[in-house]
Structure formats: structure tokens, C-alpha cells
Design a protein that fits this description.
By secondary structure, the protein is α+β, with helices and mostly antiparallel strands. It has one domain: Protein Transport Mog1p, Chain A. Helices cover 36% and strands 31% of the residues. Strands 1, 2, 3, 4, 5, 6, 7, 8 and 9 form a nine-stranded antiparallel sheet that branches. α2 packs parallel to α5.
Length: 219
């Protein structure tokens, strides 16, 4: 019980818990069947994206997979003209059972990364409405990386974790669906600094996101 009370005293956790309860009420108060999408597996996504070439694909370990509870994931490293990036996507067909995307701001510190800064930036992507994404700077020993991540459904993209839950309730009411994906791109920081790493991550997002979005929400 002490653990539960400590969790609820954490304001962000309490807000998320309240939103999840409201989501459950929205879904179960109306009897209409939920729409469940069935996109192609993420592993079929392109390995070559212009000048970006896949160098490695990593399987999610069973422990992380059990914690994440996503319906599909992909974790890859790509090499481009200015250096490497890592792409991670987790897709959830339905959040009706309480499954929900995990925030990198929780997962990365839990893996030993120390936050150094966070803000929201805009990324302009060809053929897609401008993305508002989280720019998260973290360190692990001598390693420093720029993390760009955001949440998306068929009809919206959003950076804010709490706002994504509000939009999700809207999707449930209007379209009877709760599918959502979290996208994360990591760029290691080298001697050129974090702005150079950010630019590399943005270049990769511009090249990869239109295809990823089309594959997941082609219906």
C-alpha cells in the first residue's frame, strides 16, 4: 500500500492514472466494437532510405518486451552521410486493456541514462504536417545522445505525453479506435556537438517518417 500511495503522490503519475481511468470509462460506457488495425509487420519497413543504410536490427529482449506489451516493435541502427542514428518504433493496436506507450523520459533514466535537458521542437517533414517532437538530451558515462521522440495515431501527432492521452480519448469517442505508436530516434553526440546530432536525427526523420506512417496507417 505504501508503494501505491507514493505513486499517487507523484503528480505526473496521478495525472496519467486519472486519464487512463477516463479512457476506460469512455471505451466501456459505449457498446460499439473497437476498430483494430492490422498493418504489415514493422520489420518489413525499408532497410535502405536514400543515403541511409540499415547496419543492424536488434531484437527486443523478452523482459523488455513483457514490460512494453506492444503489439509490434522495430529497433534498428542506420548509417548516414553524417553518422549513425538508432530508430525505435512501438505500435499498439489497442489500449483498451490498459496497455499504453512508455515515455522515454521514464525508460531511459531507468536504464542508467542521466537527463541533461528537455524541450519541444518542430520538425518539418515533406508530405506530413509539421511534427512537434521531444528533444531529450541524456548522458551515460562518457556517452551523450540526443533523443527525439513523439506519439502518433492515424489522425494526429503530439509530443506531450498527457496531451496524447486526451487526443486518444477523442479518437475513442469519434472513431472507436485506440491504436497509437511511439517513435524514437537517437543520435550519438560526437565532437561536433549536440546541435549536429540533432540535425542528423531530424534528417533521418524527414527521410523515414512518411514511409513509416504510410505503412502503419495505410488503411
Amino acid at each position: 500500500m505504501k508503494l501505491s500511495l507514493a505513486f499517487l503522490r507523484n503528480r505526473p503519475a496521478a495525472v496519467v492514472s486519472t486519464i487512463l481511468v477516463l479512457e476506460a470509462v469512455v471505451f466501456y460506457a459505449t457498446p460499439t466494437a473497437e476498430h483494430i488495425p492490422h498493418p504489415p509487420p514493422l520489420r518489413t519497413f525499408a532497410r535502405d532510405l536514400g543515403e541511409w543504410k540499415m547496419t543492424r536490427e536488434t531484437e527486443i529482449d523478452p523482459e523488455s518486451e513483457a514490460l512494453l506489451r506492444a503489439d509490434d516493435t522495430v529497433s534498428r541502427s542506420y548509417a548516414g552521410p553524417d553518422g549513425p542514428v538508432n530508430l525505435f518504433v512501438a505500435f499498439f493496436k489497442s489500449q483498451r486493456g490498459g496497455v499504453t506507450p512508455h515515455s522515454p523520459k521514464i525508460c531511459l533514466p531507468g536504464s542508467g541514462w542521466t537527463p541533461e535537458g528537455s524541450r519541444i521542437i518542430q520538425v518539418d517533414v515533406p508530405g506530413v504536417e509539421p511534427l512537434m517532437v521531444n528533444r531529450y538530451l541524456v548522458r551515460h558515462g562518457d556517452d551523450r545522445v540526443v533523443v527525439l521522440y513523439w506519439y502518433a495515431t492515424k489522425d494526429y501527432t503530439v509530443a506531450d505525453e498527457y496531451l496524447s492521452k486526451v487526443y486518444l480519448m477523442r479518437e475513442g469517442l469519434l472513431h472507436r479506435r485506440s491504436d497509437e505508436a511511439v517513435f524514437r530516434v537517437i543520435a550519438p553526440i560526437d565532437g561536433r556537438g549536440d546541435n549536429s546530432a540533432e540535425k542528423r536525427a531530424i534528417d533521418f526523420i524527414r527521410q523515414s517518417y512518411p514511409g513509416l506512417r504510410q505503412q502503419i496507417w495505410a488503411e
